[in-house]
Automatic annotation (TrEMBL):
Designated name of the protein: 3-isopropylmalate dehydrogenase
EC number annotated for this UniProt entry: 1.1.1.85
PANTHER family: D-MALATE DEHYDROGENASE [DECARBOXYLATING]
Cofactor dependence: Mg(2+); Mn(2+)
Coiled coil: none
Organism: Pyrobaculum islandicum (strain DSM 4184 / JCM 9189 / GEO3)
Length: 325
């Protein structure tokens, strides 16, 4: 039985970086004998303009029947599409590894993995405006915290057995306090420390190597992972995996970058490394390793886009990495 992969190219630089990544995915699948059934569907601003809805029913149907979703960045309608997919399939853990790469100017050395809660917090979209007052609900549940903490535990067990819980329980005593307490309980037996999110932002710049696995709530994770990606060398290199119990979605951390769309200069590496995470998730760690190695070879050989000091186009980088597998 083939793995059913639904590809959503997205907006802005999305189609370019996804096309580059598809070269790599197809080359890796052919070489390593992974049976993939790839379908491509529209969602995002493109779909909104064409059909009046960011997530057309046909795309949703394909997503329902897919084993895994591979998605480019989305523009104005990013929340509608991305959150819908995360919530609908309960992709409750957002895994964001952050690591320096060869041939990329290092801001600071860093090697950690963020485990970001992915379906709760203020991202549930419960916002209200009553006259002169606007309110958003921050939702944290025990169930939601336990299951994402268990993912952090799994990563910690594969790494240094060390987890930092990031929260703001000095202000959000009840809500963030609950997240911290449930997480602490779930992580018993590991080396666990905790940090307020503001201090964590500072430490990620000052001494990033002190972090190994970082477990945090949705919004703090959203913000800190952009920061951490830039510390590692650039947002164009940062992959992510949205993981649930039966389904997953892989996508770059960055956005649609309309300012550089269509120019062929977007860095496809974040998307290509997200593809590596996808192979890992379907049980093909060997293929993931081969892709990561091919990415390193391209960087070592200076086949790179301008954001990291190269002169190559998006597709050239994608094709080179595909050929280096
Ligand atoms: C991300 C993105 C999304 C988020 C947006 C597009 C909804 O910024 O994946 O980090 O905030 O989660
Ligand atoms: Mn984000």
């Amino acid at each position: 039985m083939p793995y059913k992969v639904l590809v959503i190219p997205g907006d802005g630089i999305g189609p370019e970086v996804v096309e580059a990544a598809l070269h790599v995915i197809n080359a890796a699948a052919a070489k390593y004998g992974v049976d993939l059934e790839i379908k491509i569907a529209e969602a995002g601003d493109v779909a909104l303009r064409k059909y009046g809805v960011a997530m057309p029913p046909e795309t949703l149907k394909l997503a329902d029947s897919a084993d895994v979703i591979f998605k480019g960045p989305i523009g104005e309608s990013a929340y509608d599409v991305t959150s819908l997919i995360r919530m609908r399939y309960v992709l409750y853990a957002n895994i964001r590894p952050v690591k320096n790469l060869p041939g990329v100017p290092v801001v600071k050395e860093i090697d950690c993995v963020f485990v970001r809660e992915n379906v709760e917090d203020v991202y549930v979209g419960a916002e209200y405006k009553i006259g002169d007052v606007a309110i958003a609900l921050k939702v944290i549940t025990g169930v939601g915290t336990r299951r994402v903490a268990r993912v952090a535990r799994r990563y910690a067990e594969m790494r240094k057995r060390k987890v930092t819980i990031v929260h703001k329980a000095n202000v959000l005593r009840v809500v963030d306090g609950f997240f911290r307490d449930v997480a602490l309980e779930e992580l018993r037996g590991l080396e666990v420390d905790q940090m307020y999110v503001d201090a964590a932002a500072m430490e990620l710049v000052r001494n990033p190597l002190r972090f190994d696995v970082v477990l945090t709530t949705n919004q703090y994770g959203d913000i800190l992972t952009d920061l951490a990606a830039q510390v590692a060398g650039g947002i164009g290199l940062a992959p992510s995996g949205n993981i649930g119990d039966t389904k997953a979605m892989f996508e770059p951390v960055h956005g649609a970058a309309f300012d550089i769309a269509g120019k062929g200069i977007a860095n496809p590496i974040a998307t290509i490394l997200s593809a590596a995470m996808m192979f890992e998730w379907i049980g093909r760690g060997d293929v993931a390793q081969a892709i990561r190695r091919a990415v390193e070879i391209s960087l070592e050989k200076n086949i790179k886009t301008p954001d990291i000091g190269g002169r190559n186009t998006t597709i050239e980088v994608g094709k080179f990495i595909a050929s280096a597998i």
